[in-house]
Design a protein that fits this description.
Chain lengths: 452, 409
């Protein structure tokens, strides 16, 4: 029995339309997009031009700081376009798959026997490395720095997020190979997995440190798990990786083929057919929305409802997204007496007890829209972030130090332990409607730039 | 409601860039968002937001103030009728007198305060924050009933400008705004404030000779302050202390129910406790601050009881906390999240010190009969320091834990 840690702070927001049932193959997308902004920390140098032929695993762009760090094509086909935004910033590289082209192949490797340098080189060359994140700073790590350990969260706890057992069904050998390889790339040899208490999915995995967690979201955030298992000291560095990416890496080692699979949890109250769809990283999102017509009144989110990205109907699945959620837009103004701030509020879900709905059973599912339910204000209320932030840190003080550009304060208050996603619930509950995750991202970027 | 919204939409261009009424945009925006929560949607980050906003939060504080406001309004009429010997006045007669006095105070408080808020918001080009919704109601409730309205106007202006706007507005102030208004009056017009303004028309009643015999119109704390510096056996002192016996004017139950002279909203511990229950049930007010504030007051009361060096010190602690503004300060002033300690551990310390100093100042310094006001302003100033040490202790603890793990590895 692994050691169990109980997370008390947090909240499960129960939204209607959770994905369920077995995994089905999504329709093949006509175009796949790899979007450099998803790979935070990489300064992209695009190495392909429109019209180039690429195989799955061929580089699309590399990091200007580290040439060996590559992001590769998920499919074989033709580069359709390189989309640039303001100041010629690269927004996405589009690849149209063609059925004839073959994937690039490498010689299979035994992760238990290969040496660290060979594993690292393979991980970098195939593009699997770009799916790692470093803590601190929540960026794609510097490949020249050896991490102390690797942390993997074995479950999702965000609203509507997919069940990890479904994502990994039939892939445990791939996962084991990935875990073994990752362990050999650290200085201590340790790979930590945080599992949901009572979940047997990872019992077959060997060579890992398992810790069980129970409690509400954000118990499944890897940052929460690091903080409770081995809080990060100043100057330390660990890697984190999503289990599906670990399995994709393991698959590469075992078969020599790069195939960045995504089993996407498609859901949300406006999704016509919530369920699990198997596709590849960067697939066109229209293949995952169950045929919902494009509409101004429905928002498509790539990722989960707390941390995801809003995409248009012809947009693409983000590289780190494991879900596609369709929510109603909330653009209609709300009159104060009927549905605004003076109303009884029987339709308002709130973590606070300011509406009578806190008396309803916790199992009720909600159809929430995207209305902000109020405007941005100065910070007035205190103690609110703390209710949903299971770190031994002071979230509101940290956010204030970020707003004040107080580098010393950010460091003292433990910014190196957190990622924007850890503040997602703080942002959700914020009475003053601050963009907390954006602020934390700015703070992390500032600290990384100033202190490194 | 569609029609109202369409009307607002029609007016909007006049207030937007280039419109004739551009400089009144703040007013338009405040009124529009007052009536309609805007159809703003989330961008990236979280895609759904909690139902709560600052308007709802502030509105719930107003709801919690209603029992104290209603009781206080009635009580001012009741005290007036007592002073002229008409203890049998009806509920409505009492209310009528109370409303006659309280409504102008509320109008002046909101009028002056919101006027300044609109001015500063317009000057800074940001939307109106809802903070003054509560401050504007708190101020009348901590005023003596016969305070001249021009004094209230000056006090509100002083408090809003000096205590709030110079620091950057809502959310940025160091000290509580309503208490600043009260403290300003206290120091700027000490003579008037200690004079006969606690009962409506009491000076005129006395001059006309129609006042009930022995009805001084002083508050409980005003009486108690007169005992300081006199031996316990002094007949004046024993006379005053006898007013606090069971069945007398300032008995525990009279003070608990609130049928005694005092500031409009502060006299009834019962009405304030109903408000406290609302604040705690909705999670808007910090129960930690209220509980520790109460504990601090009781501890200081018990210490004084143990010392018992003068008559004031012998007042039972439970009696202490139902007198004056202790309860009102505890529930509505000390809990102001902007000026209170912002760490959860800090809230315990902050509240305890607030209650402790309230009774200490009240008993030791008869020049300030209302110790609560001074004590809360004092702990408001201390709050950042308390937070600093709470956070520093946590930083040190974390550093030690990491260091011991790294040493073990």
């Amino acid at each position: 029995m692994p050691h169990t840690i109980r997370i008390r702070k947090g909240v499960d927001i129960r939204l209607a339309g959770a994905p369920a049932g077995g995994v089905q193959d999504a329709a093949a997308a006509d175009v796949y997009a790899i979007q450099p902004p998803d790979f935070h920390g990489i300064n992209p140098r695009v190495v392909v031009k429109p019209g180039d032929q690429v195989a799955a695993g061929d580089a699309l762009f590399t990091d200007k700081a580290h040439d060996v760090l590559r992001v590769t094509s998920p499919v074989s086909g033709t580069v359709r376009d390189v989309v640039r935004g303001e100041k010629r910033r690269v927004l996405s590289v589009l690849v149209a798959p063609d059925s004839a082209a073959a994937a690039r192949t490498w010689a299979p490797m035994d992760p238990g026997a290969a040496d660290r340098e060979a594993l690292l080189a393979r991980m970098l060359e195939s593009g699997c490395f770009a799916f790692l994140r470093s803590r601190p700073y929540d960026v794609v790590p510097d490949p020249t720095v050896v991490p102390r350990a690797v942390f993997i969260s074995g479950f999702h706890s965000a609203p509507l997020a997919p069940d990890m057992a479904v994502l990994l069904a039939g892939r445990m050998e791939d996962f084991q190979a990935g875990v073994t390889a990752l362990g050999r790339m650290t200085s201590t040899g340790k790979v930590h997995i945080g599992v949901r208490a009572g979940d047997a999915t990872y019992e077959v995995v060997k060579g890992v440190q398992t810790t069980a967690f129970e409690g509400p979201h954000p118990a499944g955030n890897v940052g929460v798990q690091i903080h409770h298992v081995e809080p990060l000291g100043k100057g330390e560095l660990v890697w984190t990786m999503h289990p599906e990416d670990v399995a994709n890496f393991g698959h590469l080692l075992r078969t020599g083929v790069y195939r960045p699979v995504r089993v996407v949890g498609a859901g949300g109250s406006e999704h016509p057919a919530p369920g699990y769809l198997r596709t590849l990283v960067g697939a066109r999102v229209a293949t995952l929305t169950g045929g919902a017509p494009a509409s101004d009144s429905v928002r498509i989110i790539s990722g989960d409802v707390l941390t995801g990205t809003q995409v248009s109907a012809d947009g693409y699945l983000g590289a780190f997204a494991h879900g596609v959620v369709l929510l109603p837009e909330g653009r209609s103004p709300k009159f104060l007496l009927t549905s605004g701030w003076l109303g009884a509020g029987f339709d308002k879900f709130s973590v606070s007890r300011a509406f009578p709905t806190w008396l309803l059973p916790k199992s009720k599912t909600w159809r929430l829209d995207t209305n902000t339910n109020g405007e941005e204000r100065a910070l007035v209320v205190t103690g609110q972030y703390e209710q949903v932030f299971p770190f031994d840190l002071f979230p509101q003080h940290l956010v204030k130090s970020i707003i004040a550009h107080d580098l010393d304060g950010m460091e003292r208050l433990g910014i190196h332990e957190v990622a924007p996603e850890d503040f997602a619930l703080c942002e959700y509950v914020c009475t003053s409607k601050l963009p907390v995750q954006t602020l934390v991202r700015e703070g992390l970027d500032t600290v990384k730039q100033e202190i490194g | 409601m569609k029609a109202l919204h369409n009307m607002l939409d029609g007016l909007r261009p006049q207030f937007e860039e280039g419109g004739k009424l551009r400089r009144f945009w703040v007013v338009f925006d405040a009124l529009e968002t007052f009536a309609f929560t805007p159809g703003h949607v989330t961008k990236n980050g979280v895609h759904v937001r909690d139902g709560i906003d600052l308007k709802r939060t502030m509105f719930l504080v107003i709801v919690a103030l209603l029992p104290a406001l209603l009781f206080g309004t009635w009580n001012q009429g009741y005290q007036y009728h007592l002073s002229i010997g008409q203890a049998d006045a009806t509920l409505w007669e009492n209310f009528a007198v109370g409303l006659w006095k309280v409504i102008p105070l509320i109008v002046v408080s909101y009028g002056v305060g919101l006027g300044i808020e609109f001015f500063f918001a317009g000057m800074r080009g940001h939307a109106i924050n809802e903070g003054f919704l509560v401050s504007g109601m708190l101020i009348p409730l901590v005023m003596p009933v016969d305070v001249p309205l021009w004094m209230v106007a000056i006090a509100v202006a002083f408090a809003v400008v000096i205590a709030k706007e110079v620091f950057g507005g809502t959310g940025m102030n160091i000290i509580n705004i309503a208490l600043t208004a009260r403290a300003f009056l206290f120091f700027a017009y000490p003579k008037q404030l200690s004079g006969e303004i606690w009962i409506h028309n009491i000076a005129a009643t006395k001059a006309a000779g129609t006042a009930v015999d022995g009805y001084t119109g002083a508050t409980a704390l005003g009486h108690l302050a007169n005992t300081v510096g006199k031996p316990m056996t002094d007949p004046e002192v024993t006379g005053i202390m006898s007013m606090f016996n069971d069945g007398a004017m300032f008995s525990f139950w009279n003070a608990f129910i609130g049928t005694i002279p005092g500031s409009i909203g502060e006299t009834s511990a019962l009405a304030i406790l109903i408000g406290a229950a609302i604040l705690i049930a909705t999670g808007i007010g910090s129960w930690k601050i209220m509980a520790s504030f109460l504990a601090g007051g009781l501890v200081m009361g018990f210490i004084f009881n143990g010392l018992a060096l003068n008559a004031y010190m012998t007042l039972p602690p439970l009696h202490h906390i139902v007198l004056g503004g202790f309860m009102f300060g505890m529930v509505f002033m000390a809990t102001d999240p902007v000026t209170a300690a912002s760490t959860e551990a800090g809230k315990w310390i902050y509240g305890f010190l607030g209650g402790f100093f309230s009774i200490l100042i009240r008993v030791f310094n008869p020049a300030y009969p209302e110790g609560v006001m001074m004590a809360i302003l004092f702990v408001n100033v201390l709050a950042p320091l308390i937070d600093y040490y709470v956070i520093q202790a946590s930083v040190n603890r974390r550093a030690k834990r990491v260091a011991s793990r790294m040493a073990a590895a």
